[in-house]
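Repro:
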Amino acid sequence: MLHNLKALYGYKLAATNGEIGHIKDFYFDDYSWAVRYLVVDTGSWLTGRLVLIAPYAFGHLDADSRTLSVKLTNAQIEHAPSIDTHKPVSRQYEQDYYSYYGWPGYWSGGGLWGMGGYPVLLPAANTFGARMDYVHREDPNLRSAVAVTGYHVETSSGDAGHVTDFKVNDRSWSVRDLVVETGHWYAGKEVLIPTDKVDRISYPESKVYTSLSRGYSQYRRPPCGLGLSLTAWSR
């Protein structure tokens, strides 16, 4: 099922023996376009400390109670490696984090989740070399969804608007689309840009770049009724 990330902010996190806080942000990988962690504000439980929870621990997502269950105990979360959310997440931190929980690293092996026990989405055959380069990088390409929201989208024919949200598959936790508010060029309507059409994200410029143009040949309305998807962008 597809979800808007923005709608998940504020969801309560329920560990196996009690509530641990609420969702404050998501860290996604802009190489494979997958949610790698959610950021939890623990409130009074850990005196406002922020902790990361990886999708390996995700359980049931209940929209009625706005709760995501996680398959971890309060004690496991409390004693996990601490993180400074004001600094980039390093590969060394990830290795320590995954080792603590006994999970296989998503950065090893092929597919969206490496050799782990999560749904595996195999990459195209010609991406193997690029994948190996990614595996050995010290920078794991993790970006804050909150920070990227508001970035302008630069196409081959000019500014297309700004990012307002992300469409995410809750089975694989892959980021499928960027939701973009178009501004004056299309009467402020929202459109979806598939993440496989994104060329790069420039953090110094606060921009998302795509070689697609603002031209299009047809629209379709997503199942949730949010905005429009450009099903055939012109290059």
